[in-house]
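Issue 218. Parser rejects a valid record. Input:
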Amino acid sequence: MKLSVVVIIVFLLFIFGGYSHAQNNLQSKNNNPKVVVGIVVENMRSDYIQRFWDKFQPNGFKKIYSQGAVCQNVKLTLHEQNYASGTATLFTGVHPSIHGIVSNQWYDRLKKKEIDSTEDDYYFTVGADTDAGNASPANLLSTTLTDNLKILSGGKAKVFSAALNRESAIFAAGHAADGAYWFDTESGRMISSSFYVSTFPDWVRVFNSENYADIYSHRTWTTLLPETSYTECLRDDYLLERGYFGEFNTFPHAINKYIKRTGDFRPFKTTPSANMMIKDFTLRLLENEEIGKDDVTDFVTAVFSSMDYENNSFGPASLEMMDTYLYLDQYIGELVDEAEKKFGKDNVLFFLTANTSASYPIEYLKEEFHLTVDYFNVESAIALLTSYLNITYGEQNWIEHYSDLQLYLDHDIINKSNKVSLNELREVCSNFINQFTGVQVSMPAFQLEQGSSANGLFEPLYNTYHKNRSGDFIYTLKEGWQPGYKFKRVNYTDQSRIPIILWGAGIKPQQINSTYNAADLVPTLAQLINVPIPDKCQGKIISEILKK
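Output the parser choked on:
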């Protein structure tokens, strides 16, 4: 009898416990934010906010940092910092070794050429008569948080992204998004791919008919404030600042003149007007795409840029960079205000982060602070390595391709040779490059393939190496050093620190000093919007944010 009573009690506890748990889940689900608005900035250093603080307006960065949970000690530990790998890591919660986006471009051994990370000729451009929309997220080997949101909601959640660069737009949107839009430098329009959009929305057609790029490219870029008030940066005529085309480094900037040189709208992307366009496009998207109309959480990401490809021509200490952030402060403030007004403050979860940081120019560090930094001449190093291989193993085209601090050997030639094995040659080449002054560490592929959880110098290499996409050895440069090419310009940084700030929808304002990783954004957001954390997620929840 007693046993029967115990069984009944346990059964009732199980039933009511399950009911209670279900009720809690239902309550939690009902408390989900209507909309998540993500703000990502390319080439953003965490210290920009501290440096420019006194010049910001009340409802922009100051509001975000005062009302949000601020994580300043966040690392993006990648072998090579770039907006494709960075964005993919932020939205999948895994590193390139798993999601596969090892860089903006990589060498495809089968195609015998360097391919773009989003290139996909199966799809076509929607919104312009160019090839800039022949793209998809097919190369992204992991699901994004927004993919999981789509799956959980049975496709009801609406997911969109808008960016200046194609890679940022696509990897922020994921595979299952309703739309990803980016700026086409050839046509000057916001476009998409047929992967996402079968029929181009009328509201985007109307937006493009306003000719943002053309109109604002004919307006000279002038400073937001009087130049004398820019006391937190270098003088506008700083001698070591390269500027546009190595010539034009002072205000005002005649962007239309620069566009005539490039023959496309790339210079427009380097201006505050381009960020304004992304802000206005995102506001139109929020208005026209039925966002936040039901109880299912929707997800919209806007990606802004810090001078885009001209970032290294001016640098973090330049007046141009400071002016970019003063304008951006206004645009972000307007986007946040409009979202709160439209959906209600308690119904929107915001986050702000960066997909890359930025480095100071070599000349600035050497001349002003006497740091022992320099350019690592990639082409000279490869030429010396080529000579060494030919002397040691015979005249052959041993090296098939090199880029982004990695090198691809010709496997066919090596397999036919009886003088050396592939792994031996990998190690020989890696050790050779390791001897150069500017190289921090180099590792051959077969060692990286063995896997490791090593921290410190090796962590970025293990995080980034992907067997089918990375080179036969990869290497990193010493702090402050940058790769140099004779005719090729690169937007390079070795800085890995980025901010992550979350605010709105019940987030408690606080400063979080613990160390976190960029991959931690996904599990944290997943917890906040009640979406399952991706199975392969390498990140951890930022626990302080969840404390009430």
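Fixed in the parser; the record now loads. The domain at 41-362+497-546 is CATH 3.40.720.10 (Alkaline Phosphatase, subunit A).
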